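Supplementary notes (optional reading)

For those who missed the lab, this is the record we used. Protein: Lipoprotein. Length: 175 residues.
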Amino acid sequence: MKKLILVFLTALTLFSCGKEKNDSENNTQEQNVEIAEPKKEITVILDAIYEKNDTVKLYVYDKNDNVRLDKEVKSAVVGSPMNQRIELKLPEDIDAYNIAIGFSSNKSQEYFTLKSITMIINEKEVISPIDYLSYFANNDQMVMDVATGKHQLLHDKDYPPAFGGNEQMKAVLED
């Protein structure tokens, strides 16, 4: 009788250990499935001259091309005749499918000079200062002198002078 109980306990122990191993493997597989794709770190850098104090805004668009005003990023600019580096960094929890840059909210700012735009995603430069214009379209609130980069700002509409991302921008943000 003792041998029978001993055999029964040994078999029970062996089957229990095997079940725990299978459960452990299943949990590992489930954990692998649940791992989310890492969020993108997106930074837009402007090299610009603002003669007067102003605010620059980075607008974010969702999959349906709706602007997410609750996700916009702002940067105050102190007026100066010198080039300024203006960084607009999106928080990592924001999924951007397109962007727009509102260059001015100061209605007395008649001009500003945009030297370049650089975009960095996860520490990699994806839009360089050389070719930034091919990723944006400007709205009718700006008139640009291509040779100098000087923009005349028009503040007579309900929306600010801005560049909006085009299809090439969407493709960059999609990758």
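If you only remember one thing from this example: The chain has a mean pLDDT of 84.
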